[in-house]
Design a protein that fits this description.
Length: 254
């Protein structure tokens, strides 16, 4: 059984500017028509320079989740492909463009990144546009699925709303059994990743995953508040002033 915890916390720079958190995330475990359970995790980080970045992140998560669920419920044997992932992302882009047009805004006003993982009983699909990262474990070996993609200038990245967003869509499909995943926005990537080794920073993840592994699937509700407190703690805020989102999921035994 999957055990999942997630939280999005406003950064100190946004608090000082009286700006709400512009990150969003969703995680669900759904049963496909094939009778198998699938873990779905989605994270989006609204651009700080975008007027409606937070709403863009919300739309990106909701529409991605809806598209993934529809695919899982449409076939008796779910076999993800890059074209299917592209359809999910195109649906996100359409939803943002439609809302932008309805509100006399531009798609750029809703700029956001997008990261997602869909993990089944014996395989997974991951996709990403922009920075932040996905860490996955098969057995006891951790790896970064896609290294955070930066834009052409410092402190820039790519967004799902960019005209060439689909050129920066990264997709990875594996038939290996994935037992643990972590998805996080760029506010945490300097803490969660070793840029020298191009690898996950295990001491960041292990204490939290260790707690999660010991819980039963129905006993994780209180961990969300604990995770939010940790992400909003002085120790974390001393190292990053950005919004922070983290999703952790495991089906490993303690």
């Amino acid at each position: 059984m999957w055990k999942v915890v997630s939280a999005s916390v406003v950064g100190t720079s946004h608090t000082e500017a009286n700006i709400p958190c512009q990150d969003d995330c969703y995680s669900e475990i759904i049963r496909g028509v094939d009778g198998q359970d699938y873990l779905i995790c989605v994270v989006s980080d609204g651009a700080g320079s975008a007027k409606e970045g937070g709403r863009g992140a919300e739309l990106a998560c909701l529409v991605s989740l809806s598209g993934i669920e529809a695919s899982l419920n449409a076939v008796t044997s779910f076999q993800p492909t890059a074209p299917i992932v592209r359809e999910w992302v195109e649906a996100v882009r359409r939803a943002i463009h439609e809302e932008a047009q309805a509100r006399s805004l531009t798609a750029r006003d809703f700029a956001c990144t997008l990261l997602a993982a869909v993990v089944g009983p014996g395989g997974a699909v991951f996709f990403q546009i922009g920075d932040g990262a996905i860490v996955a474990s098969s057995g006891y070996s951790y790896g970064v699925v896609f290294w955070p993609e930066s834009g052409p200038y410092a402190n820039m990245t790519y967004f799902v709303t960019d005209e060439d967003a689909l050129e920066h869509l990264q997709v990875a499909i594996t038939s290996a059994r994935v037992d643990e995943v972590a998805l996080f926005s760029d506010g945490l990537q300097r803490l969660a990743l070793s840029f020298e080794q191009l690898a996950p920073h295990a001491p960041f993840f292990e204490p939290m995953l260790g707690v999660l592994r010991k819980r039963n699937a129905g006993e994780c509700d209180d961990l969300g508040e604990q995770l939010a407190q940790f992400l909003g703690s002085t120790r974390i805020n001393e190292r990053t002033d950005d919004d922070k989102t983290l999703v952790l999921a495991t089906r490993r035994e303690p």
